[in-house]
Structures are given as C-alpha cells and as structure tokens.
Design brief:
RVT-Znf; Reverse transcriptase zinc-binding domain-containing protein; single chain; elongated
C-alpha cells in the first residue's frame, strides 16, 4: 500500500474537514477489491486461486446478485470469518451496484469519500462550515499552520481543557494566570497576551483587512466580511495563522518549562514566519515564469 504522505492525502474541500484518507477504509478496500478482481475479473478460469476464491465466495456473490456461474459449481456453505468482511463492506457502503471493472482500491475509496457530508462546526450554519474547512485546508498555508487550524476547529489542541478532560493535566485554567478555562478560543482570542500580540501586529493586518473587522471568527475560522477581496482575506488569514502558531508555541513553553516568551519575541517570530511565506511565494512565481 502507498505510504501515507501529504502528496496522497487529497480530499475535496467540500467533503469533510481533514483531507486525510481513512486508513481502515483503505485497508478494507484493498482486501475486498482483491477478492472481487480474483473472482469476477480473472480470465484464467483454471487458475488455482480463482477456484479457491470461487469456492469460498460464490455464496456471497449470489446474495449480492453477482452470480455468473452454473448451479453445478461447488461452493462452501460455511463462510470463513475473514470473508464475511466482503459482504459487510459492500452492504455498508452500498457498492453492490458498482461495475466489477471499477473495483480498484483507489477508485472504491474515492467513491466512498465522495459521498461524505460536510463536518458540522458548532454554532455555524452548514454553508459557513464549508467555508471554514476550505480555509483550514487552504493551499496558501504551510502544513503546520493547516494542522493547527484544523485542531483549533476540532477542539483537539493540547490546551489544558482538552488535556484535563483526558486525565492528562490536573488544571483547566490558563497557565498565564487568567481566571478562565484554557480553550482554543481563550488561547487565540480572549487571553490578554493574545490581544496584546495582535495589537502589536495591527499594522501588518491592516495592510489587508481593517483591524475592527477582525473577530474571533476570523482568528479561529478565517471568516471575514465578504466585502473584502480573496487576496486580502488570504493575506490576513496567513498572518492570523502565524500568530496562532507562535501563541501555541509560547504557551507550550510556558506550561511545560516555565519559560516566559516576551511579546516582542513573539512578534519577531511571527515576522520570521511571514518572511518564509514571502520567500515561498517568490519561489513559486519564479517556477511559473
């Protein structure tokens, strides 16, 4: 099977949120497709493997309406447990109408994922949730920023509320001394340290979007008023993602090692990340030319 890497982790933006294939589904598809192709598409009827698969699977094929054999063909009434997965897989995903020639793992997996629905986002309408997942998986972001944006939406960041709910942290309050529960909303928006860092980077953000138009929905989800251009929204979303990256890193250093990172140091680190984005854009434009 192909190694799982970002180049093969493709998913349509309007389908689910994570752009990552379900490994269990892929493994099941490989097994089922191998059985289907060995039996239904094998042109060498005298091959031993064909006869073995036919003997064990003919009963399944008949229940699925795929019977192409004479009634005199022998088959096993007691289906082995590992072959029961085939019928379960086909019925679960409604694949008994798929032509036998299409039973390839990639094709079947793509067909299954194309039927997925958009993952809901709390307190947001379905149409808005689609925009959120498009922003999270934006090709203009780095892989790290995509991961942080995805975990922020899914509530999976290693902040104290998340860790405490799993018995991994004795506290739920913000490590900076705020008297409130530490959540992604607090770390990236409500915390006084985050507010001061955004204020220090106000000039950079206002080059794209007016500062008063930036809300917690902009920070967490990349949602801005539609009156702004796509380029302006993309530029401000990049800055906000870089700020979130540095805020999370500074918060982790404080919570684990007690190391306090100053606001000015965080501001410099944000500028370094933005410089990397600029260098990447310049390289991409040179390749296109």
């Amino acid at each position: 099977m192909d190694r799982v890497k970002r180049t093969v982790m493709h998913k349509e933006h309007r389908k689910e949120e994570n752009a990552v294939p379900v490994i269990l589904t892929i493994l099941r598809a490989f097994f089922v497709c191998g059985c289907v192709r060995k039996t239904l598409l094998n042109k060498n009827k005298d091959h031993t493997a064909y006869r073995v698969f036919c003997f064990f699977l003919l009963l399944v094929w008949r229940r699925l309406g795929w019977d192409k054999w004479e009634n005199a063909t022998m088959f096993n009434w007691d289906l082995p447990w590992y072959y029961k997965e085939i019928e379960k897989f086909v019925v679960e995903f409604g694949l008994n109408c798929v032509t036998s020639s299409l039973w390839k793992p990639r094709t079947i997996h793509r067909l299954i994922r194309s039927r997925d629905t958009t993952e809901p986002v709390s307190d947001l309408a379905p149409a808005t949730a689609t925009r959120v997942w498009e922003n999270v998986s934006s090709p203009s972001l780095t892989n790290r920023n995509k991961d942080i944006a995805w975990m922020a939406v899914k509530g999976g960041l290693p902040v104290r509320s998340f860790m405490h709910s799993r018995g991994l942290c004795p506290h739920r309050q913000c490590p900076r001394g705020c008297p409130t529960e530490e959540t992604a909303y607090h770390v990236f928006w409500a915390c006084s340290f985050a507010q001061r860092l955004r204020a220090a980077l106000r000039q950079e953000m206002e080059a794209h979007i007016p500062y008063p138009n930036i809300t917690h929905h902009s920070v967490l989800y990349g949602l801005f008023p539609k009156t702004h251009s796509v380029e302006a929204i993309q530029g401000c979303w990049r800055i906000l993602c870089c700020i979130k990256d540095i805020l999370l890193s500074a918060r982790t250093r404080l919570a684990t090692n007690g190391e306090v990172v100053s606001r000015e140091a965080c501001r410099r680190m944000v500028h370094n990340l933005l410089r990397d984005y600029t260098d990447k854009d310049n390289k991409d434009s040179e390749k296109e030319e």
